[in-house]
Amino acid sequence: MSERAITAMRAGLQSCAGCGLLSRPGPEDDRGNCPRCDQRLSFRKPRSLERTWAYLIAAAICYVPANLLPVLTTTTASGAEHDTIMQGVVLLWSPTGWPLSLIVLFASIMIPSAKILALAYLAITVERGSIANTEQRVRMFRSVELLGRWSMVDVFVDTFTAALIQLQPLMSVEPGPGLFFFAAVVVLTMLAAESFDPRLIWDAVDESEVEYA
Amino acid sequence: MPEEQTPSAAVRTSRALARRHGISAVWIIPIIAAALGVWVAVNRIMNEGPKLTIYFTSADGLEAGKTKIRYKGVDIGTISAIRLSSDHRVAIATAQMAPRTQGFFVADTKFWVVRPRISGATVTGLGTLISGAYIGMEIGSSHAYRYHFIALDTPPVISTEAPGRFYVLRAGDLGSLDYGAPVFFRRLQVGRVASYALDKNGQYFNIKIFVRAPYDQFITADSRFWQASGFNMKLSASGLSVQTQSVLSILIGGIAFETPEDDRLEPAARSNTVFTLYSDRATAFEPTARHPQTYVLIFNESVRGLAPGAPVELRGIKIGEVADIRAQMDVRTAAFSVPVTIHLDPQRLGVKIVELNSKANLEAVRERLIEALVAHGARAQLRTGNLLTGAAYVAFDFFPGAKPVKIDWSQSPVRLPTVPGQLEATEARINAVVAKLNSLPLRQIGDNLNKTLNDLDLTLVSARGALNNANAMVAPESEQRVQLDQTLAEIRLAARSIRALADDLDRHPEELLRGKRAESK
Questions:
Q1: Does A58 contact B7 at a Cβ distance shorter than 8 Å?
Q2: B397: part of which helix (H) or strand (E)?
Q3: CB contact B5 to A (< 8 Å)
Q4: Whole-angstrom Cα distance, residue A149 to residue B509?
Q5: What is the rounded average pLDDT of the residues B110-117?
Q6: How far apart (Å, rounded) are the C-alpha atoms in residues B429 and B440?
Q7: Considering CB atoms only, which of A43, A54, A81 is closest to B27?
Q8: Residue B290 — φ and ψ, nearest 5°?
Q9: ipTM over 0.90 threshold
Q10: Are B29 and A55 an interchain contact pair (Cβ–Cβ within 8 Å)?
């Protein structure tokens, strides 16, 4: 990037997050509403990093009980059984069922943790004003946004199972407290991704270019 | 930073503005998350139940992580690990118990594996056929906490929490009793056999029974327990009577008890009172020994039909029984005799001893009594009680003619005098007669008799001859008869003249001197 690319912010324009309309903020207050869709306008997502960090920390905290507490309580004639996610993975692991086991492993354990780590990495690099691997980081952010919701699969499966398997005297399945924390992890990481403003990555590049120029 | 463009400045102001605003409200979310996490963690740690170690002889059916520990049907724990002891003797299970169960685990809390079990009258643990074994438990009453337990091999038949009392029955043999065998009171099942164990010396069984709450008050110190196993058949003049407690007891045995009528007012027996378990109702109600005394009787006759337990009677009243029958041989004289040991307990058998001073020395009184009885001719005798079976009994009776006997009180047991049995005595008498008969010189007598008869025959012949002669002499036409007649006529004449002479002499006695006077006079 030999020449400074013009950005909306540098042009003094705010782009609407809802409809994409560029508009000039009022001279006094830069926080106007979009004249087209009445969306709140700002140059960058307000307090993006702070909010990302808050959601990330909350997600990381919830990640611990989500994996330690049982997500599913199966009550059969032989008594109740409490399974955590990892136990579910182990339970599903069989010569024929291993793909399913891997899906659960990826969707429920790897992806949430990867998301937390990725967002934390992004937030740290942005905070430090790092300019390295910018494109990679943007790609990483996109995949986090894309994959993040799939972690909800586990929550859906569990809630469906709990709703469907209610053969009261013989067998019943109930969600455990771990499921609540797991859902919280998924939702919080999604919120964190949502709060993160990828434009901040480029802002750092911009600023460094200004400094080096 | 470029100063010429306002939007950049606005961004800056905006950022500065944000910092001035202080901490964003969004931080509440991680705080809430942290609080929740901490709360869950604390809850977990605080509610961590106790960990128990339970030793099993066999962990058959137990599964780590699956097998539950249940109390009154409530899951209060899970077996978390099972391993073998270092000496491979027992399986050691670690159990993670539910929170706030610490108070359950006291010294006498019991654990056992619940499996399907069919024992006599009870079928338990059928549910475990589907669900697999679980561990049952019963909370003890002790206050000493414990975290190591040895599981029972068999589940306790009776829950210690059920109201009622335990009693211990002492029996020589177990009969057909088993865990859970019923205990009957007036044919109502009121309890069960809880456990049984052989005494340390192997002498008898200690059978622990449990009697349910309202019925335990009927057990007093004098209650009698007997084996109600099987049935009792009696053939009498009135027909066949079969007695049993219940069909159940025929199949699996049982124990019945009864309390003598006059004991009803006595207080109920305390828990774990030891009773004797009798073999049947009749033995159970035999009065207990009061002052048993042992004596020995020596019989020189066959004791066939006499068995231990045979009654000893005094004039038909039972005063004791035969305890032991042996045989002894005197090498010197080659005399064979049978010492019979008897137990006398007249008081137990309801014999009243009149004017017995309670303070008197019983021993001395007894000695005096027996001395007196023996002095009056009391002797023991073997008698046949039942002609069909030949069962014999010992009878004391008075034989006034018996030889006086001195009782040696220094012996133990004291020997009491005997007389031969009735049959024996008769036999002896007949024998004596036969012997006497044998000793008669019958042959000689016969010879003599024969000779005498021959003589008699001859005598009779000659007698007949004599009589014939006599007959011939007195025949009317015989010479002798005529002569006799004549002689008689002459004798008559002679007699007449003698009479005349006599008359004459009567009138004139002087004629004897002077001679006959002249008629003329």
A1: no
A2: strand B392-398
A3: yes
A4: 202
A5: 82
A6: 17
A7: A54
A8: -110, -65
A9: no
A10: yes
Beta-carbon separation of B131 and A79 below 8 A: yes
* Helix-, strand-, coil-residue percentages of chain A, each rounded to 5: 60, 10, 30
How many beta-carbon pairs under 8 angstroms link A with B? Answer: 98
> Do the chains contact at B40 and A69, CB–CB below 8 Å?
yes
Q: Tell me how far apart the alpha carbons of residues A162 and B9 are, in angstroms, rounded to a whole number.
A: 55
Looking up tokens 């724990």, which residue turns up? B77
In this predicted model, what pLDDT tens digit does every residue of B58-75 receive, in sequence order? 888 888 877 888 888 888
Closest CA to B177 of B120, B99, B247: B120
pLDDT digits (tens, 9 = 90+) for B460-482: 999 999 999 888 877 777 787 88
Q: Smallest Cα–Cα separation from B219: which of B170, B257, B276?
A: B257
DSSP state of B102: G
Question: Both tokens of residue B360?
Answer: 């008197």
Q: According to DSSP H, which parts of B338-396 are helical?
A: 362-375
Residues of chain A neighbouring B132 (CB-CB closer than 8 A): 78
**How far is the C-alpha of B282 from the C-alpha of B38, rounded, in Å?**
75
Identity at B227, one-letter amino acid code: Q
| Yes or no, beta carbons of A54 and B40 under 8 Å apart | no
A 59-88 residues with CB < 8 A to B: 59, 61-62, 64-65, 69, 76-81
Sign of the torsion angle spanned by Cα atoms B277, B278, B284, B287? negative
Interface with chain B: mutation pick from A61, A63, A180, A202, highest number of B CBs within 10 Å: A61
Question: Of B26, B32, B69, which to mutate for an interface test with A (greatest number of A Cβ within 10 Å)?
Answer: B26
Q: Hey, are the CB atoms on B37 and A62 less than 8 Å from each other?
A: yes
B37:A177 CB<8 A: no
Residues 6+ positions from B168 with CB-CB distance below 8 Å:
B206, B207, B208, B209, B272, B273, B274, B275
Please report the DSSP string for A32-85 in residue order: -B-TTT--B--SS-TTHHHHHHHHHHHHHHHHHHHHHS-SEEEEETTEEEEE-H
Strands B148-150 and B51-56: parallel
Least Cα distance to A111 among A152, A72, A142 occurs for: A152
C-alpha distances out from residue B37 to A50, A170, A182, Å: 21, 33, 12
- Contact by Cβ (8 Å): B294, B343: yes
What does each C-alpha distance from B335 to A48, A137, B289, B341, B426 come to in angstroms?
127, 125, 35, 19, 22
* Total residue length of chain B: 521
Pick from B172, B178, B174, B206: which is nearest to B193 by CA? B178
Task: Name the DSSP class of B140.
Answer: -
**Tokens 């324009």 found at:** A13
Angle at B412 between CA B410 and CA B416, to 5 degrees: 85
Structural contact between residues B194 and B181, judged by C-beta atoms closer than 8 angstroms: no
Q: Show the domains of chain A with their CATH numbers.
A: 1-43 (no CATH), 45-212 (1.20.140)
Per-residue pLDDT reduced to its tens digit, B274-287: 888 888 777 777 76
Confidence (pLDDT) at B460: 92
Number of C-beta neighbours around residue B285 at 10 A? 12
Measured from the Cβ of residue B184, the count of other Cβ atoms closer than 10 Å reads 19
